[in-house]
Amino acid sequence: MEKQFFQFTTDHRNVLNALIRNNPSLMSGSFSVLIHNPSALDFDNKRSFFNQQLHKRTPGMREHHGTLPVNVRRQFVFEDSFHALIRRSPEEIKFGKLSVRFYSEEGVDAGGVTREWFQVLAKSMFNPNYALFRPCASDRLTYQPSSTSSINPEHLSFFKFVGRIIGKAVYDGRLLDAYFTRSFYKHMLGIRVDPSDLESVDPDYYKSLEWMRDNPIEGVLDNTFCIEYEEFGRVKVIDLIPNGRNIPVTDSNKLEYLKLIAEQRLTNEIKEQIGAFMQGFHDIIPADLIRIFTPAELQLLISGLPDINVDEWRANTELHNISASDPVIGYFWRAVRSFSSEEKAKLLQFVTGSSRVPLEGFGALQGVQGTTKFTIVNAHTKDVLPSAHTCFNQIDLPSYDSYESLRKALLLAINEGTEGFGFA
Question: What confidence tens digit (pLDDT) does each residue in 264-292 have?
C-alpha cells in the first residue's frame, strides 16, 4: 500500500499541487497525507504547509510574550546582539516581537529597522574575526562551519546563537543574505552527507577522490583507513574505522573509504559546531517539520527566491564544444524561460551551488578560479540526466531529440538528481 501511495502521488503531483495551490486548506484535511511523500509537493505548497503548521502548533503564544528589545552598535552588531539575546529563553526569542535600535541612529522600529538588523547581523556571522565559518573554495560566497573555530573560546555559544537567529528569521518570515554549503543544509535536515558534497568545500580534494573512484588503485596508492590533517601546527591522525591506519584501501573497499572520508571531513570534524548550531535552531524550529524540505529548498526558505533575468543569464553564458545554433541549446533556454521562479533558482543552485545572483549580475558569478561564467558543456551523451560541476559553474548537457525530453530531464536533475554523483 505504501509503495502504491508513493507511486500515485508522484505520478499525479502536477494535479495535486494545482489543487492545493488553489485551496491551501486541503493540506489541513484529507490532503495532509501528502506530507508522507514530500517530494510530491512543490516548494510553494510545502512552504505554505510549513508556515501554517509552525504557527498552528503554538496558538496565542505571541500574546503572552512582550517586546524583545535589542539595542546594538552597528559596528559591533554581532557581539551586542549576542549579549542582548543569549540569556533569553527559547520561548522569549521565538514568540517575542523584536524591537531593534541602532545606537546613535534615529528611527522607530516599525519593522524596517528589524529587517535591516537581520541583514547586517547575517553578514557579521561570517566575519573571519569570529572564526565561525569559512568560505568555500568553489565560490567564496557559500559558507561551512570552520573546524578550527575553537580558537574562539565562545565559539559554541556563538554557533548556538547563530542557529537561534536563523530559526527566528524563518519563524518570522525574514529572508537572510546567508548561504551555506549543501552539506550544512543536509545537517540541518538530518540527512547524511556523501562524497559529492565535498566538491564545493574542497574541489581539488574532491577531484582526487573522483580519480580513486574511477581508476584501479592497488599498487598505485598506499592509502589506509585513516586521515591526516593539521590543526594549529600539529598533525593529527584519525582512524576512520578501528585500527584504520593499518588497514589498506583496496579496489574492493574504496567506496566505503570515500564515504567515510566525506563523513569525517563534513561531519565529524565539525560535530560540536553542528550540534551547537542545531540546538539553537531547534529551539525555534521543530526538527520534524523542517525535514519536509530538500537541501535546495531549505536554502530558498532561508534566503528567498532570487530575481533572475533569463536574457542576462543567457548573455553571460559560455558554450564549450557546442554551438549556439545547436537545437539542444535552444531547447535549454526555452525550458529555462518556461520554469517557475522556484525552478529557475533550483537550476542555478544545481549548477553553481547557490541560488544567489551576484549584485553585479551573472557576469560576476564566482568559481574556484575567481569570476567564472555559467558554462554549458557538450556531455557527448544522449538521453541521460544532465550533470553539474559547481566549482566551475558548469552543466554537462547531453543531447535530446525534443524540447520535451530535455525539459523533463532537466527538471528531474534539479529536483531529484542532485545526490551521489556516482558514489552510491
Answer: 999 999 999 999 999 999 999 999 999 99
Report the SS3 class of residue 218.
strand
**Closest by CA position to 134, among listed 205, 193, 184, 96:** 184
Site of grid cell 565561525: 132
Return the HEC string of 52-97.
Answer: HHHHHCCCCHHHHCCEEEEEECHHHHHHHHHHHHCCCCHHHHHHCE
Residue 201: half-sphere exposure toward Cβ, Cα within 13 Å: 23
Q: Are strands 394-399 and 387-389 parallel, antiparallel or unpaired?
A: antiparallel
Mean pLDDT, range 383-397, rounded to an integer: 91
Backbone angles phi, psi at 217, to 5 degrees: -115, -15
Among 212, 266, 335, 391, which one carries the catalytic annotation? Answer: 391
Residues 211/233, Cβ–Cβ less than 8 Å: no
Measured between its terminal Cα atoms, the distance across the chain in Å is: 27
The upper half-sphere exposure of residue 141, i.e. CA atoms within 13 Å in the direction of its Cβ, equals: 22
Positive or negative torsion for Cα 295, 296, 299, 301: negative
Active site residue 391: yes
What are the residues facing 102 on neighbouring strands? 72
Q: Which helix (DSSP H) or strand (DSSP E) does residue 422 occupy?
A: none
Tell me the per-residue pLDDT of 176-197, one tens digit each, with 9 for 90 and over.
989 999 999 999 999 999 999 9
CA atoms of 186 and 418, how far apart (whole Å): 12
